[in-house]
Structure formats: structure tokens, C-alpha cells
Amino acid sequence: MSAWRIFVAAAAAAVLAACATGADTPDIARTWQQAQVALPALGAPEALRTTMGSTEMFARVARLSGARLPVVVYLHGCTGVGNAEFLKQLADAGFAVVAPDSFARRYRPLQCDPATLTGGRNLFVFDFRMEEVSYAVQQLWSLPWVDRNRLFLVGSSEGAVAAALYRGDEFRARVITQWTCSGAPHVAGLAAPMDEPVLAVVAADDPWYAAARAAGATADCGPFLVGRADSRSYVVRGGPAHDVYSSPAATALILDFLRRQATR
User: Fold this and answer.
1) 189-210 pLDDT, tens per residue?
2) Which CATH class is domain 3-263?
3) Maximum CA pair distance of the chain?
4) CA 191 – CA 160 distance, rounded (Å)
5) CA nearest 94: which of 168, 165, 38?
6) CA–CA separation, 180 vs 214, rounded Å?
7) Is the Cβ–Cβ distance between 257 and 199 less than 8 Å?
8) The model's pTM
9) Beta carbons of 58 and 37 less than 8 angstroms apart
10) Beta strands 96-99 and 69-75, pairing class
11) Is the dihedral of CA 232, 172, 203, 186 positive or negative?
């Protein structure tokens, strides 16, 4: 067995031991242990979608033989991990994807009400989400197959709020989808470092933000990107009401943005 495979096997054993979720497991650790993972084909017939710490995951990264992968931390929306097809598209593009599961926490209420298309029911949830980002970065830095210099943050809806507000500088670029960067003081704005490229994507007729737009809030993140190099706000028109990932043009734009940032 090569030194790299021994290293990966040792890392696998450590992560598997940590993944033995028990009553004394720190709450934040559960979001990582139950994360969804997508990995490139790496010589296999197709990309792999699995869970953190699975035997399939470690078998796939063992194929790297010392190479490191660019990694996307994907923050799901207010009802849980979805967008399986988009995660696979990221993996097909050569990225590893880790989507922490915020609902793996012992106590995790809905922050939104899908029936009325409104949010803000449990404001502390946004603190939860940013903690999940920080913890995921900490864990990723301990993995031998992760390229620390090519970490990316992608957030959707509620997850996009966290992606916008996260103040860390560990990411090469970030993508904010299904969010306008505008709203109540506790969620408005963009806290990414000024030299970090940002792509924001939202639907023009997103019903979740209709009331805010009517009250004078910005319709997209464009005003918050002024002065940020290689950043852009893209508004999907005549397409999906909320889910921009169902727009081929939007997903193509996101993938192109991440590819360019991964090679700069």
C-alpha cells in the first residue's frame, strides 16, 4: 500500500470514529457527520453521491493518489438538503461537494414557512448556519485530499443568507443563490472580503421576496457587489419562481464562474 493510501486510510479511520454519533456528540458535529457528499468520477464510471464517512467516499478519494480536490461547501435552504442534480453537476465539473445537514442538530426548527413563502420565524437559525460553515472549514482542513487554496462557498435561499453574511476569508469565491442580500437588519448585506469574487443569482419574480420588493428592498444583490472585482449579480427572467437551479442558463453560469475561480 502506498504512503498516500496509508494516509487516507488513517484519516478515514479517524473520521469514522468521529462519526459514531452518540448522545454526547457535539451538536455542531452532527451537521458534518450527516453531510451529503458528491465526488468526481476520478476514473470510475460516474460521479459519486454519498454521505460523509461512508466507505464509498474513502474508496473514491483513495483514487487521487496524492492529488487534492477543489471543494464546494454547499449550504442548503430552509427545508433541508436538496438539489441533488446540481451537486452532481459540480462533481462532474471536478469539484468535491460537502453539504452539511443543518437538520441533523438535536433541536432545529424551521426558520421559514413554505406554505406562506415567508421566513424569519426563528432568527437564531442564521447563527446556526454560519457556525456550520466555520465547522465545515475546520474539518476540511484536516482532510488530506482537500485543496485548502480552492475552497468555495455556495448557499441557497436560507443557506445563501449565511453564505452572504459569513465573514471568514477561507474561500476563494462564493455563490449566493435565491437571495437578494436585502431585508431586515439582521440578514441584510454582504460580509465577504472585498477581494473575494461573488456571484449572486436570483429569479426576477421570486415570490419569497415579493413583499420586500414592494416595500422598497433591492430586487437582487447587485448594489452590494459594487467595487468587488470579478463579481456579478444575475437575475433569471421568465424562468423559475424560486429554484434557479432548474434554469440551465443559471446553472451553466454558476459552473463557469466556479471553474474560472478554481483556475485563477
Assistant:
1) 999 999 999 999 999 988 888 8
2) alpha beta
3) 63
4) 12
5) 38
6) 13
7) yes
8) 0.89
9) no
10) parallel
11) negative
Q: What's the chain look like in SS3? A: CCHHHHHHHHHHHHHHHHCCCCCCCCHHHHHHHCCEEEECCCCCCCCEEEECCCHHHHHHHHHHCCCCEEEEEEECECCECCCHHHHHHHHHCCCEEEECCHHHCCCCCCCCECCCCECCCCCCHHHHHHHHHHHHHHHHCCCCCEEEEEEEEEEECHHHHHHHHCCCCCCCEEEEECCCCCCCCCCCCCCCCCCCCEEEEEECCCHHHHHHHHCCCCCCCHHHHCCCCCCEEEEECCCCCCCHHHCHHHHHHHHHHHHHHHHC
Strand 48-51 relative to strand 36-39, pairing: antiparallel
Q: Which three cell numbers stand for residue 124?
A: 437564531
Place of cell 415579493: 210
Residue 2 corresponds to which amino acid? S
pLDDT digits (tens, 9 = 90+) for 232-263: 999 999 866 889 999 999 999 999 999 999 99
Going by pLDDT thresholds of 50, 70 and 90, the confidence category of residue 22 is: low
Q: Which three cell numbers stand for residue 66?
A: 496524492
Beta bridge partners of 233: 200
Dig out the grid coordinates for 170 from the structure.
477561507
